[in-house]
Amino acid sequence: MKTLILTMIAGGIALGAAYAGKDAETTVTGDVLCAHCDLEIKTSCQKALQTTDEKVFLLEGKVAKKFFEKNEKAKKVTATGTTSKDGDHTVLEAKKIEVADG
Fold first, then answer.
1. For residue 22, what pLDDT is reported?
2. Three-state helix/strand/coil letters over the chain
3. Hey, what's the torsion of the CAs at 77, 81, 86, 90, to 10 degrees?
4. CB neighbours of 72 closer than 8 A, spacing ≥ 6?
5. What are phi and psi of 59, to 5 degrees?
6. How far, in Å, CA of 62 to CA of 51, rounded?
7. Distance of CA 65 to the CA centre of its chain
8. Is the confidence at residue 7, as pLDDT, over 60?
9. Closest Cα to residue 47, out of 26, 87, 75, 27?
10. Which structural domains are found in the chain, ordered by start?
């Protein structure tokens, strides 16, 4: 019985570690900034979202591109999508973006 419990715990830890590397879906609201001009974290212009707690999400994908073509002056947005890491930066592959209140 003890072996079974230890095996289950080890399996749970392994599963958790495997899941931690996967992309996670999230929704964030924040100010729209340029990752190059405003934040100086990229070598070329890219839309980024900075939350009130100063977390930065680099916005990528077709949805983000289309949204900002139509809403180029948007200052605050809510974006939903999958997140991943690119070095020190968090990337949000947007599935949905809308202008936020405020």
1. 53
2. CHHHHHHHHHHHHHHHHHHHCCCEEEEEEEEEEECCCCCCCCCCCCEEEECCCCCEEEEECHHHHHHHHHCCCCCEEEEEEEEEEECCEEEEEEEEEEECCC
3. 40
4. none
5. -90, 130
6. 22
7. 15
8. no
9. 75
10. 24-99 (2.40.50.140)
- The pTM of the full predicted model, rounded to 2 decimals, is 0.75
Residue 58 has pLDDT above 80, yes or no: yes
Mean of per-residue pLDDT scores for the chain: 84
Check pLDDT > 90 for residue 17.
no
Task: Kindly indicate the confidence band of residue 10, based on its pLDDT and cuts at 50, 70 and 90.
Answer: very low
Nearest by Cα to 96 from 20, 22, 29, 21: 29
